[in-house]
């Protein structure tokens, strides 16, 4: 059986590598590629450039990867004191790919930043710094330190796609984020939480065989090689979409 093509959005950063120092690069942690391969898909890396969303037309699924904060201007707020400098080009490219995937009915898995971007794409807002909302102690579990993906226990909502894939919980996931979902975007519902932190969003229709496959998770499933449930689920949805047809998502605006 042909492996479904799974697009993965990439970073645009300055980095050191080989003999190069402080060079403009398009990059992606290898863990995303390995996750998709292990789940049965063929990864296709999407450069964050204008027009790159055209590649979505040949994809069977889309993973919107993690990374720096979404520009608050995208959801009508000024930047807070702790918000990353904007990656304007990547925001535009990822949003274009996401909207194109939704319009075509391509299954979408948003991871961390990708989860937040899914919410923003559909008119939702973000908390720019969780310590300001939860207090420093509660927020610390979600951002334990640079490069640390700490264990966090989440609980899924009954009857949701997240619950079908992960079970009722508590489910232990790996997290590294200082921002989170505030108001959910149009057509989305919260399907998992860790206390007051939104840990998953999905399409608000009851999860079923004909419901558009749209899921965002605040955690980093690519950082846990022992748990491929989310990756296998999006690859399976991509395979079904290829064989049975796509169901576009109606997105206002």
Describe this structure in words.
Helix content is 26%, strand content 26%. It is α/β, with parallel strands linked by helices. The chain has one domain (5-244): Rossmann fold. Strands 4-1-5-6-13-12-11-8-9 form a 9-stranded mixed beta sheet, with helices on both faces. It has a two-stranded antiparallel ribbon with strand order 2-3. Helix 2 (88-104) packs across helix 3 (113-121).
Find the CATH topology.
Rossmann fold
Radius of gyration, in angstroms, nearest whole number: 17 Å
- Shape annotation: globular
Structural class: alpha/beta
Widest sheet: strand order? 4-1-5-6-13-12-11-8-9
Whole-number mean pLDDT? 94
User: Strand fraction band?
Assistant: 25-35%
SSE sequence, one letter per element: EEEHEEHEHEHHEHEEEEEH
CATH superfamily: Class I glutamine amidotransferase (GATase) domain
* CATH top level assignment: Alpha Beta
Q: What is the distance, rounded to the nearest whole angstrom, between the alpha carbons of the first and last residues?
A: 38 Å
Main sheet makeup: 9 strands, mixed
Tally the structural domains: 1
What is the helix fraction of residues, given as a range? 25-40%
Count of strand segments: 13
The CATH architecture = 3-Layer(aba) Sandwich
Residue stretches low in confidence (pLDDT < 50, at least 5 long) are none
How many helices does DSSP assign?
Answer: 7
